UniProtKB/TrEMBL annotation:
It holds the Pfam family Ribosomal_S18. Keywords: Chloroplast, Plastid, Ribonucleoprotein, Ribosomal protein, RNA-binding, rRNA-binding. GO terms for cellular component: chloroplast; mitochondrial small ribosomal subunit. HAMAP family: Ribosomal_bS18. This is Small ribosomal subunit protein bS18c. It is found in: Plastid, Chloroplast. Part of the 30S ribosomal subunit. The gene is rps18. The keyword RNA-binding applies. InterPro entries: Ribosomal_bS18, Ribosomal_bS18_CS, Ribosomal_bS18_sf. GO terms for biological process: translation. It comes from Garcinia paucinervis. Belongs to the bacterial ribosomal protein bS18 family. One of its GO terms (molecular function) is small ribosomal subunit rRNA binding.
Length: 101
């Protein structure tokens, strides 16, 4: 076989198509918390379209639904409980110190 012909031979790797994250029956709505929570990180950030494997239209609808749920306080804007606990502990310990004269 010539080298020139060998360059155009495609590999015969098995391709496994992944299932779409949003099924045809799923309705993208701010009240559908089980669906919305799949597209939010642990910190409360909206995951990117590449990570979610969504279409552009689906990502827009998910983003709007998440923002509506946040405004209606169904979801937190940020999930930084660890940072809050640390700052709370620091505030408590600094308030307990007694100054000597």
């Amino acid at each position: 076989m010539d080298k020139s012909k060998r360059l155009f031979v495609k590999s015969k790797r098995a391709f496994r198509r992944r299932l779409p994250p949003i099924q045809s029956g799923d309705r993208i709505d701010y009240r559908n918390m089980s669906l919305i929570s799949r597209f939010i990180s642990e910190q409360g950030k909206i995951l990117s379209r590449r990570v979610n494997r969504l279409t552009l239209k689906q990502q827009r609808l998910i983003t709007i639904a998440i923002k509506q749920a946040r405004i209606l306080s169904l979801l937190p804007f940020l999930n930084n409980e660890k940072e809050f606990e640390k700052s709370e502990l620091v505030a408590r310990t600094t308030g307990l110190r007694i100054k000597k004269k």
